[in-house]
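Severity: low
Component: inverse-folding endpoint
Summary: output formatting inconsistent between runs
Steps to reproduce: submit the following structure tokens with default settings.
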């Protein structure tokens, strides 16, 4: 019995400290793609079927960060089947995620099946640009659309494709919405480089390579259960088994961390300025890591969730929205990775409201390393207001109207991307047309 207790204890520790399912899932996806027929069209669309499990959910629907995690697995399959992985390895190249942007159109609920459709849209001298769509199997609605900038290190997309296809591949034109996003990334990079202070000191030391991601009331005894009938060893086995089932089937740390952030912010002083920047301290833990040993792409969005919880609690947005019967939901987000965060690296997430329009708040969230104050990643979030408007919430909190600041140039480019992406989806024929 004791050997079983040791095994269960080891598994509980493993699932508590590492994202075990990430590594198992990645291995299974690559192995499966390895034995599937190759796809000879490098720009051809590939489909991976998925389903929302209990581990994916927050409020009974798929958590924002999980979309990026599923996109990781779909790209593994795509690159394995179309030969890009093999060609990159042959050339000694490495591919890392430089930036992502995702627009959420409808939530995917627990148990709901979906098809994740991935394809290479185009490329430039430094990176591939991919589109990945979450299409519900229930009604074929495109529930989310993501673009990914897959940066190529020590080679170029043209060289990889020429090695793979034994000829020069003609580069497709950039779609209008993708071009807006590329303009956003360029403007964001220029804005960060133009800033004074600590970012300037790192500009010469880090250089261009930093723009890449190295990228209840129930009686338990009423049904005959009596803990006194069990020996200490049996009770230990029951407790360990329950913990293992819990950590295997639910993202326990997400809910515990959310509660911790909520309680901490509740007892901190109120921030009276809606535009004031707030920060929380974090550290890269073992369950944040991917196979490269640094913070996984999807974990950045997860940490941003907690930083926004904290931000809304302290500036009054959360309580005001509850009193007004309003919901705040993430409508879109984009993140640009500049330098990877390593294991045990301490960092701050600095969050501020950049502005608002008739339907949403726009926030900027920066990951700032405590080691050298370098901005390792920058995220923009569109927080939709359902049932009211940002102006009404602000007026309710501060008892006066507050003028919206002028949008930065990079934010204008991103809003243009969102608008163009929405128009492109609505203009498509077929099933999307019915949902217009």
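Observed output (run 2 of 3):
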């Amino acid at each position: 019995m004791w050997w079983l207790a040791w095994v269960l204890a080891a598994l509980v520790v493993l699932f508590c400290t590492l994202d075990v399912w990430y590594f198992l899932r990645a291995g299974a996806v690559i192995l499966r793609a390895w034995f599937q027929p190759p796809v000879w069209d490098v720009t051809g669309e590939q489909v991976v079927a998925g389903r929302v499990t209990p581990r994916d959910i927050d409020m009974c629907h798929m958590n924002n960060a999980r979309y990026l995690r599923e996109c990781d697995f779909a790209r593994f399959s795509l690159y394995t089947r179309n030969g890009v992985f093999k060609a990159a390895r042959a050339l000694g190249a490495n591919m890392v995620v430089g930036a992502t942007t995702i627009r959420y159109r409808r939530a995917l609920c627990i148990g709901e099946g979906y098809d994740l459709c991935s394809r290479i849209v185009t490329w430039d001298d430094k990176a591939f640009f991919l589109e990945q769509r979450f299409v519900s199997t229930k009604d074929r609605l495109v529930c989310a659309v993501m673009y990914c900038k897959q940066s190529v290190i020590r080679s170029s997309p043209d060289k990889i494709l020429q090695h793979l296809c034994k000829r020069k591949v003609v580069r497709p034109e950039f779609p209008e919405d993708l071009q807006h996003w590329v303009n956003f990334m360029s403007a964001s990079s220029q804005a960060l480089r133009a800033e004074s202070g600590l970012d300037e000191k790192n500009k010469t030391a880090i250089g261009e390579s930093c723009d890449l991601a190295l990228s209840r009331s129930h009686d338990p005894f009423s049904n005959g259960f009596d803990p006194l009938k069990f020996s200490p060893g049996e009770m230990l086995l029951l407790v360990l088994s329950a913990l293992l089932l819990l950590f295997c089937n639910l993202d326990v740390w997400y809910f515990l961390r959310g509660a911790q952030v909520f309680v901490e912010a509740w007892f901190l002083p109120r921030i009276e300025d809606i535009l004031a920047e707030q920060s929380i301290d974090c550290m890269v833990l073992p369950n944040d890591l991917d196979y490269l040993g640094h913070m996984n792409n999807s974990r950045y969005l997860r940490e941003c969730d907690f930083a926004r919880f904290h931000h809304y609690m302290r500036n009054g947005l959360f309580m005001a929205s509850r009193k007004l019967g309003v919901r705040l939901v993430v409508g879109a987000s984009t993140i640009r990775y500049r330098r990877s965060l390593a294991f045990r690296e301490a960092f701050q997430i600095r969050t501020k409201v950049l502005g608002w329009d008739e339907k949403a708040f726009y926030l900027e969230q920066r990951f700032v390393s405590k080691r050298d104050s370098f901005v390792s990643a920058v995220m923009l979030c569109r927080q939709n207001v359902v049932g009211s408007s940002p102006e009404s919430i602000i007026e309710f909190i501060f008892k006066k109207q507050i003028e919206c600041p002028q949008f930065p140039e990079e934010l204008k480019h991103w809003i243009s991307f969102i608008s163009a992406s929405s128009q492109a989806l609505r203009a498509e024929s077929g099933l999307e047309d019915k949902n217009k």
